[in-house]
């Protein structure tokens, strides 16, 4: 970069010739020089070409400076329609267009064959990364634009100050000016500076001064970059999104600097959860999501909410949900999980996108679809038998079915997917449960971006340890399976899910191969997703049948008609119609997963709305399932007959109105596995017992990742 820097200085000195022996305003000159240098070195263009961008950034800086203290005042919504706000919107758009113009120009040169690469400067590296085939390294167009903005500004503004103040000091302290001149002549004579000379330890400045200069410049750039990014995240972006959505008639609680509505959400939730509820109506929507319930009534079906500075478009309209979930343009990506949820579920199939997702989905599909499921029926039956054997000690007494269902579903996923018993996987389950609790209690805590680098809370430290311990346990299990192959005890890795993962880890085709980290993440996901959700389905369906004994009788009749006293079989399971209706109604009233989150990668049209990039969309399954407009006035009552003619009829052809397992390409991979497991368990229980809810039961559903009964579900079982 030295020649480019020298050339820029020469241009400046050439200008100075006209003003010799007169005053020159060096701050302005230094501004021009540093702008020219950053344009030449990082963006391969002259100052004149980038002047427009630079001027707009300066204007934006002025707006930022004069509004700096306004954002902390309550009632920030009043500033929404201010002139500054409108102007900054326009400026942001114009800067974006200009930068994209610079990027396009460079890309076109490569496309037309004028250049054979994107260039070795900063802009070239950004474009290269934008085209990276590895999704992990790739950056989006928005990221490129942001980086350009940051470096235009940070690369100029800070160095400008450094140079101008130095000139001032040397102009005042002419003795040091002389010393510096002497040093320059000693090193370069009348030649232009070169890289070796300028990096030699300086006699005049001294090593200490050099280090201080270097550090202070670095620190200034760092602080400026942090400040620009911080303001971009917590101020420009949220205000811009709020403004765009408001202009399209989307209302919602106003954005409040940084903490969004989270305090209000926590207050509403705490209030509703502290009181047990009556279960004659299963009106859990108002209880579990009081914010969505109240705000939906206030602002309409779709509205804008805030998770800290993150804009969340809450969507409860089935048509829009269908559009989002069916989108194949890669616009709605999986929302980024917070650090705790990520440690819980890993960076596996649930979050993956693109090729990584296809690869992982193929393995999971193979392990959990059709033929594979038939093969799992005996293991599921054996697990239910173990549970029922335990129950013989408690006949005619209360049994806490949520605990029992948890043990059963853990045993089933351990046996079918990992070829081990619950006891072997118990440690992993317990650790995952602990991680689930930490995730739940940190859900609404807003952290300052980047604060994790300097300070870690007790929960962060504990979750780090748990994550490490889970990883070690899973690796132990994988090693055991691999050793069996090595010692010749087995001649393959096994046909279950774990076996498929290990096989994929050893795949000779790099495209299909998965890493050890991916294996660990997949195991975590399936241990958790395979157990926690099905646990809820089984426990809540037992609860509902214990109250609605008429439906219990209908289900029992169907089971006896199909299986008599025999254990269930794959063909019969597929014909359990009444049971399917009951399970659907359970999933409608108590869906284990109550929200789905997607992040909008780039601006997109959704129905009649234009949704800006960086908005999150939250699809509320619970709100959908409890929407009287979809289900009628009796929406909060248990009425399995709704599903007598299938889901389409039950939802009035709003097929996205009932989505307990999600919808579209990312639909749950374990859907049939969960349904089979619940049907087998319920059939075998109904064949043996009549049951009613214990009078000790206290209805208090809460959300700890999934919906759980806070006080368990005690049920009294009487032998038939
Ligand atoms: C009643 C039981 C279950 C319910 C209600 C349920 C619910 C869901 C939902 C709503 C999604 C979609 C998430 C989204 O789109 O963001 C999902 C995805 C997923 N579920 Fe389930 N699930 C259940 C059982 C299971 C089981 C038993 C397994 C594993 C054996 C499993 C594994 C997964 C996986 C791996 C995904 C991610 C799929 C992908 O992104 O391609 N689930 N589940």
Brief sketch in words of this structure:
The protein is of the alpha+beta class and 720 residues long. The protein is built from 28 helices and twelve strands.
What labels describe this entry?
5-stranded mixed beta sheet; binds protoporphyrin IX containing FE; 720 residues; 3-stranded antiparallel beta sheet; alpha+beta; elongated
Helix and strand arrangement:
Blueprint lengths: L1 H15 L9 H18 L3 H20 L16 H29 L10 H9 L10 H32 L1 H15 L6 H5 L6 H41 L15 H12 L10 H5 L1 H10 L2 E6 L2 E6 L2 H9 L5 E3 L4 H7 L8 H15 L1 H22 L6 E3 H18 L3 H20 L16 H29 L10 H9 L10 H32 L1 H15 L6 H5 L2 H13 L5 E6 L3 E3 L2 E3 L4 E5 H5 L2 H4 L15 H4 L20 H18 E5 L7 E4 L1 E4 L4 E6 L1
Parallel strand pairs: 2-8
Antiparallel strand pairs: 1-2, 3-5, 4-12, 5-8, 6-7, 9-12, 10-11
Helix pairs in contact: 1-2, 2-3, 2-6, 3-4, 4-6, 5-6, 6-7, 6-9, 14-18, 15-20, 16-17, 16-28, 17-18, 17-21, 18-19, 19-21, 20-21, 21-22, 21-24, 21-28, 22-24
Bound molecules: protoporphyrin IX containing FE (HEM).
Protoporphyrin IX containing FE binds next to helix 15, helix 21 and helix 28.
